[in-house]
Specification:
Helices cover 70% and strands 2% of the residues. The protein is mainly alpha-helical and 263 residues long. It folds into 2 domains: 28-152 and 241-262, no CATH class; 159-222, no CATH class. Strands 1-2 form a two-stranded antiparallel sheet. The longest helix is centred in the C-terminal third of the chain and has 31 residues, at 192-222. It is flat, with a radius of gyration of 23 Å.
Length: 263
Amino acid sequence: MSILAPCPCSGILDAARPRTEHSLVGRLDPRTRVVVAVLFALSVVTADSLTALGVAMAAAATLAVLARLAPRRTLRRMLALEGFMLVVLALLPFTVPGRIVAAPLGLAASAEGLQRAAIIILRANGVAVAMMALVGSMEVVTLGRALSRLGAPERLVQLFLFTVRYIAVLEREYRRLRLAMRARAFRSACTPHCWRSFGYLFGMLMVRSLERAERIDAAMRLRGFSGRFPRLDDAAPSRPGALDWGFGAISGLALIVMTGVGA
């Protein structure tokens, strides 16, 4: 497969990505979006005040509105995140020592535990919503180019682009192997034979992935690949415009306010 061919996973990614090209966030320079996302995440992670985290959550919701995220898709992703944290958050009020505020079923729940659970919820949701608005709505190739222009290691950027590009290739190979197993009357069950078959499946998938990677490497070297993806805009890279500077200034002011509130 030529590296210049359309990305095999582009259809899947386009189907899962909200259409935000015409939103305010979509008109920003990708580098601005990456920098603001990183600074926002760092500020939220270091904040330890419910008031500051509430401000951060409101800012993240504003970003989601400006990015025109689909409410139903965003809510579905957030529910998946909440389900992952549900067990930990449910146990925190009963495991963190402090002032007892309730005792359901004879278990003492502390105020400090409830506060810690609220802090974790606001942190996780704030960062997740902001990342979906600023970075999650961006094309994968655009994100890779933005990271490269911001000075990220070139090998890391290439690894990121290759990984995303061939996820769908591995998925198709996995589906083909599963279809071959079903054609041979294989049925999933909790038996030693079933687990052994799944072990063979993933082992074969790894072997075929290695072979595919070697073929791709040979094809790219044949086409003169020198370890760097050429870009048409390398000669005259674009500069951030007035919208980027204004958005950056407002974002910086919001981060300063959030930090001051939490102090």
